[in-house]
């Protein structure tokens, strides 16, 4: 039997025996909420009690690191160096999850218990991101079992703060370039374009979040006595927000309209199938001259995440003294990152909203990145995955969401290949998060094949 055949038999047995589900249940049972202080001890336990034993059993040497950011979550690195002449693959995962949202999951489900219903496995972190790095690590293990060695060098970094904006990760990578030195980056996060077909993306949209505030006075004033006499901060804020896009969501801040939707990127996006989100899309929302794929993978989008003025749950007849909206811009390569908020300031001043204050968030900000979709490593990975599962992967120039990919693409200067193992309807960041069992089995086969090809063929030549 070939390496492909032997390793595939092993990885399929791993899934079909129930061992995959058991491993994932253990990881999901850790309440690793990085956005809640109660998760702090579990962030450490995930690395020390779950990840390190798994990696060490695979012949990796592990190191635990304090986060460069004060009070930042811990980081684990691991390496298996077989021969310095061999290529080195760096992989990544994050073991932290968003808030559990207890009480909001439907009856019969619990955030930190892996529950099987048909082809679905429910649990917080099941899709984002625990299943994803579990699949990649077990795929490497299948190669080791099949031939007694990996056939390339491997390094792994597991962080525990991605859901809080990856605090300290960029600083850590900058300070540890030699430790993390590699030839290619291969990891998994985010959703596939279609649940039944693999996806490769080579970067991600950036994301910057901020508040817009209008603070006119202390306290509230009776709406009967002062209506028509006092400016309404909520009204001012609403009009300011409405000036940022038109009624269809098309961006009106000139500097927020990117320059990177080139003919080649349009060609790549045009080849994609319809985006299977599991949700009915609003076809008349967003940039009207763009296709749906171009809107989410090739353009910028502005969103209002939350708004408050007065007491929404118990309104009174009063004009509030202040109003606030939490906003976010998702942006692609070709947007001047350092000018995003200054450009908004200029726009608000130009349109008469000088009373609106911009408050930048200290975290939850990621730069935009993109590897050329014609890069040799993209072609290599695509051919390997098609050979393993019989379906050509959908290739995206970048994910619609945001990831700390700049740490690997810019700081470590690596070609970045992301192969996501979830799908758009997985309810990540929401109650009822889950993964699909058929997707997971296919992903195990695809990644095992990709690592087998790297072991036998080495890296593609430029």
From TrEMBL:
Record domain Peptidase M20 dimerisation: where: 203-350
UniProt keyword terms in alphabetical order: Hydrolase, Metal-binding, Plasmid, Protease
Entries under InterPro entries matching the protein: Cyt/Met_Dipeptidase, Peptidase_M20, Peptidase_M20_dimer
Pfam families recorded: M20_dimer, Peptidase_M20
Any Gene Ontology biological process: proteolysis
Molecular function GO terms recorded: metal ion binding; peptidase activity
Domain of life: Bacteria
Segment forming the signal sequence: none
Name this protein carries in UniProt: M20 family peptidase
Originating species: Pseudosulfitobacter pseudonitzschiae
